[in-house]
Amino acid sequence: MTATDKIEPSLPSASPALPGIVALIPLLAIAALIVGCFYFVKKYREANAPIPRLVFVWVAPQFALLVLATVSCFLQAAGTSPVVFVVVCLITLVCGILTLYVHLPHAPKAEPEDSSANNTKNSSSKQSSAKALPINLRALGIDVLVIIVAAALAFMAIDLPWSEWLFPTNPLSIAIQAAVLIGAMVIMLSLCQGHGGGMAALVLVCAIIGMVQYFTAQFRGQALLPGDILAAPTAAAVSTGYRYVFTNNCMIALACASLAFFICSFARPVLRGGKSWMRVLSRLAVSALIVALGVQGYTSVNLRLDYDIVMDYWNNSRLLLSYCEQGFIPTFLSGMQSMPIEKPEGYSAEDAERLEAEAASAYDEIASQDQNRMAAEEQFESIQPNVVVVMNESFADLSTFENLWAGYEGPTYFKYGFTGTAQRGNLTVSVNGGGTCNSEFEFLTGNSCAFIGYGKHPYATYDLEGVPNMAQDFSDIGYATTAIHPNLASNWNRETVYEQFGFDQFIDITGFEGAETLHSGVTDAATYEKVVEVLEQSDQPQFIFDVTMQNHSGYDQNNISADKLTTYHSDALDDEGNRQMNEYLSCIQASDEDLQYLVSMLSELDEPTVLVFFGDHQPFLTDWFNHNIYGGDTDEIMHQQRMFHTTYAMWANYDIAGNEQNDTQVNMSLNYLGATVKQIIGAPLTERDKANLTYFSKVPALNPFGYQTPDGAWYDLEGGPEAGIIDDMAKVQYLRFATYVQ
């Protein structure tokens, strides 16, 4: 079986952007809708009737969609065919005009929306129950039809933007998604006391989710995950670095939303007889009943085990395929059920403590005879070096993708000029194209996302108070601790997490006023100058954790000057792929030069200082490269892991006792790097550190997709020759992490 035997989905493609002149079409539609509004007002004045202003609320979404269409043309963001664009604008215009027409004073049996409640109230006192019954039945029939049609349109609004399939291929998933939407429509109708505003809001939410799913897949190469909801503020903060283009499917989804808004305007209160408070209570009771049934159903079944509705995390394409086959709502709900960290089979706290103690004891036995470690420990007692850690945004060596055939040989200084390192190598990580906080988490805590689950972001999901971490470890031995990130402190909840981790200070974007920028933010060099500034402010040994920003996606911003833009070309990529590749490589070239600048500054520093430099993840572009260039891979795990490694190096401006500093190559996963740094410089190790270093000798690399043995072979987490060690690691991590946060 090859890595691509399974059907691979593709996002709906964008057509060439429509020229700005096409904006005349939605502008004319807006003008026609405005004329319709004036005509509507005129008719009510002629009839000497009060103008139902709520009708204009129903027309407002149509105005908004036409304005969006206009703006998208001016911004070259309408990547649709002219026919689709015109049809969508016409549908939106017709929906707006019809909304006005059915509420005209002469329209048969039509009632102004804002007076329907008063009419109901006045008539309820005059009509007998017998006369109210046919009215209620007629209104009930209309509402049932409105609910079904609105749910169907919401179904398409949430799935169409990112899927080329009109409906999921799994019939059960269709039924689940339809049931959820119909139930939600009934709840919104009941909560709004029979009016359609709540249903319209639900349709809008579905359309927004569909668009977010599409743009997330386009920019990050990933589908939406439950953990992304908690990270929404971070996503919003970095969303300005992307170019948004609406495809045919996006525009059709907006047309579905426009139709749904029009349909929802027909909803009317059903119960017209009886006391008003009884009507209110009955509708609230209906809402409560549906919510109770929904919660009961959701919590009593396991969508993954009982109905085989799963998120296939194997790679980004398969994850998107899961959504295509199963629909957004069932797949997302299945992912939510997997959010809690599962307790390992056979786990007990006593057993986990025993396993950790045994692993730590095994390390101590070896270390007691390790002359290099003993020399480093002795040196550390008299020389406590500054420890500067740079987690560089999206820093990776794309020369490992040999089949790009682009002539790229990797970051020049990092690979060929950054010599005399204490240790360096390939670094296995757990994320691709995003999820920076997970790399931070693995480095600072020594925990692996392999035992937490793909798609979860511990920074945003859990309360990390009390979780053991490197900042606290160094603080406990007298170090001052500083975190640096030249962006909003709220991103990935860092302001809270860093405080919980015990950092003495956090320098965010407010500390970089007037700093030079490149591509997506403050330059690496500016953060390095801040690092040196912190080092020079105190005689106390420092632990500094610097998370850079400039290389952040997207790579279609076209904001790299010609003198800094690389010109590599790969025949394996189309023109757009080559443009984005060069924009990314230009950023890496700048990072490479800034790293050399940092090393030169630290070399001149009088204080002994250790530098740990690593990339947090590859850019999302590599998902494209891997699928398109290496689609014939026969080893699925290797095909997957190609996207989940970066590189690291550890360097010092002084001679580390017990280390020859001769660029020793050691490959590992990120969860081991922190303990490795402390081991090399002779810093005290916790029992968790020692256990990790013991596990490293058996399983040098792991992530949510598998683990590697010392011979370089990769295996599934559930099997292979070291499955027992993986089980031990899972139990120890559950003890040292999961029990703290859940």
UniProtKB/TrEMBL annotation:
Functional pathway: Cell wall biogenesis; lipoteichoic acid biosynthesis
GO cellular component, one term: plasma membrane
Keywords: Cell membrane, Membrane, Transmembrane, Transmembrane helix
SUPFAM superfamilies: Alkaline phosphatase-like (SSF53649)
Subcellular location: Cell membrane
InterPro entries, A to Z: Alkaline_phosphatase_core_sf, OpgB/LTA_synthase_biosynth, Sulfatase_N
UniProt membrane topology term: Multi-pass membrane protein
Domain Sulfatase N-terminal: residue ranges: 385-677
CDD domains on file: LTA_synthase (cd16015)
Gene3D superfamilies assigned: Alkaline Phosphatase, subunit A
Sections of the chain in a coiled coil: none
Transmembrane segments: 20-41, 53-77, 83-102, 135-158, 170-192, 199-217, 251-271, 280-298
Protein known as: LTA synthase family protein
Organism, scientific name: Candidatus Coprovicinus avistercoris
Lineage: Bacteria, Bacillati, Actinomycetota, Coriobacteriia, Coriobacteriales
